[in-house]
């Protein structure tokens, strides 16, 4: 059993900052990519940022220069530092981790954390 537990969401004014954390626990041998997705009401879930086990990063164009993803491999934890928040960043943010499982890669999701940015 593997669990991803997110924290750090909340309500913030436009221009403010939040830091999301996601800790993986349970039967973990190794984790490949970790990432953050977001889903606004009535919209699909989109990738915001991801990071490989070696530290390579990807960002959606909409958050480049404002968000920073990082991870602590020893703690099986991924972070998302969000600066310069805009009302359009309002969404439920989900953590995702790709784990190695006997030669296969299996994806796991967190429960989601709400981020609300007021104008």
Outline the structure in words.
The protein has strands spanning 2-7, 10-13, 18-26, 31-39, 46-51, 57-59, 67-72, 77-82, 91-101, 104-109, 113-118. It is elongated. Helix content is 0%, strand content 61%. The strands form 2 sheets. Strands 2, 4, 5, 6, 9, 10 and 11 form a 7-stranded mixed sheet that branches. It has a 4-stranded antiparallel sheet with strand order 1-3-8-7, with no helix packed on it.
Topology (elements, then pairings):
Elements: E1 2-7, E2 10-13, E3 18-26, E4 31-39, E5 46-51, E6 57-59, E7 67-72, E8 77-82, E9 91-101, E10 104-109, E11 113-118
Parallel strand pairs: 2-11
Antiparallel strand pairs: 1-3, 3-8, 4-5, 4-9, 5-6, 7-8, 9-10, 9-11
Provide mean pLDDT, rounded: 96
Poorly predicted regions: none
From the N-terminal CA to the C-terminal CA, the straight-line distance is 40 Å
Structural class: mainly beta
Number of helices: 0
The largest β sheet comes out as: 7 strands, mixed
Coarse morphology = elongated
* Assembly context of the chains: single chain
Compute the CA-based radius of gyration: 14 Å
- Helical percentage: under 10%
What is the H/E string?
Answer: EEEEEEEEEEE
* Number of E-type strands: 11
**Percentage beta strand:** over 45%
């Amino acid at each position: 059993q593997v669990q991803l537990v997110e924290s750090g969401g909340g309500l913030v004014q436009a221009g403010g900052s939040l830091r999301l954390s996601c800790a993986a626990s349970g039967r973990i041998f190794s984790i490949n990519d970790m990432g953050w997705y977001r889903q606004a009401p009535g919209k699909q879930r989109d990738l915001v940022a991801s990071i490989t086990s070696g530290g390579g990063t990807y960002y959606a164009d909409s958050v480049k220069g404002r968000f920073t993803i990082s991870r602590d491999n020893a703690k099986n934890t991924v972070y998302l530092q969000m600066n310069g928040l805009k009302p359009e960043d309002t969404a439920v943010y989900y953590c995702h981790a790709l784990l190695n499982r006997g030669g296969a890669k299996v994806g796991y999701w967190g429960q989601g954390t709400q981020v609300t940015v007021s104008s």
